[in-house]
Amino acid sequence: AGIGKCVAMDLARRNARTILACRSRERGQAAVEEIRAATGNPAVVLRLLDTSSLASVRAFASAVLREEPRLDVLVNNAGVTGLPFAITSEGLEQTFTTNYLGPFLLTNLLLG
Predict the structure, then answer these.
(1) Are 7 and 75 in contact, with CB atoms under 8 Å apart?
(2) How many CB atoms lie within 10 A of CB 96?
(3) CB distance 15 to 32 below 8 Å
(4) Which GO terms describe its molecular function (predicted)?
(5) Exposure b/e, 40-71, CB count within 10 A at least 16 = b
(6) Which residue, 46, 43, 54, 42, is CA-closest to 88?
(7) pTM value?
(8) 7-45: per-residue pLDDT in tens?
(9) Could you give the 3-state DSSP secondary structure of residue 89?
(10) Which of 4, 46, 88, 109 has a CA 20 to 30 Å removed from the CA of 73?
(11) Helix, strand, or coil here: 98?
(12) Three-state DSSP class for 49?
């Protein structure tokens, strides 16, 4: 939704292979179908990613590096605000992990 969906739509319009990294399979798949229909680009795919989980970040990065021949652009725009204080299963504060640690780790893992 929001900025991420707009960026993905623009990349797909430019005929780029576009990976939507989403927490929700249902919402993500709906966005994929909408972007494919609006742009005519069949190379829009969904991959599940929860940046509040470093295990999810590592699995996502590993899959991208294994499955994709190259990565030209990474747009880190997911984030949360206003959540009550919570600790993740990995012992980290949830908002900080979602907004900073997860995207930082993802970027560094994808740099190779």
Answers:
(1) yes
(2) 12
(3) no
(4) oxidoreductase activity
(5) ebeebebeebbbbbbebbeebbeebeeeeeee
(6) 54
(7) 0.93
(8) 999 999 999 999 999 999 999 999 999 999 999 999 999
(9) coil
(10) 88
(11) helix
(12) coil
